[in-house]
Amino acid sequence: MSGITSDGETTGRRRREVLRLLRSSPEPMSIVEIAAELGVHPNTVRFHLEGLVADRQVEHVAHGRKGPGRPPLMFAAIRQMDRGGTRQYRLLAEILTMALAADRDPRAKAMAAGRAWGRNLESHASNTEASGPASAEDAIDQLVDVLDDLGFAPERRTSDGEQLVGLRHCPFLELAETGGSVVCPIHLGLMQGALESWEAPVSVDRLDAFVEPDLCLAHLTPAAAG
Questions:
Q1: What element of type H or E holds 9?
Q2: 119, 126, 182, 197: least buried by Cβ within 10 Å?
Q3: Phi, psi at residue 170, to the nearest 5°?
Q4: For the segment 182-225, what is each residue's pLDDT rounded down to a tens digit?
């Protein structure tokens, strides 16, 4: 097809030019109008428009002209932020961690946030019997499943009769290394909130961070009577 380049970089640049032109235009534009504005072949414009429409960045719009003859296809940019851009979720996490750390009682606020998050993990609850909450063993297994889904690489342990859950991976490792006073209490609160929402007969008493370079330990105890 005439005018269409197979070079990826040139194709991407040309496609951005088409999108930029449509975004700046107060009115929808036809293929011929876009081609004339950019000084390229209409087939090149058609090729890029097909890609932009498929990516939901551009849409077909009705032509306002009335009269005989088939009206040309008209195109307009969809007014939205560019979803193909970069994301900075770690930066957002750092900002929120710093904000919590500046609080008068960052540990309490972080634990409360974690509990709220944990209580929303009800979809992981497996005990649906009408007889009451799950056993301690079932609740711990359930908690391990949740932590595994979240990327903590958990493992059940016992030490001198105490039930433990070891965490071999931290999904927020870089933040935990610099902002452990906030991140670790969030994790503790998350586990406590999840168990509370399941009305489990067991709770997490404390979380010891980095007892080994690759291990954090959650200590489980019988839940307090409600």
A1: helix 8-24
A2: 126
A3: -110, 115
A4: 999 999 999 999 999 999 999 999 999 999 999 999 999 998 76
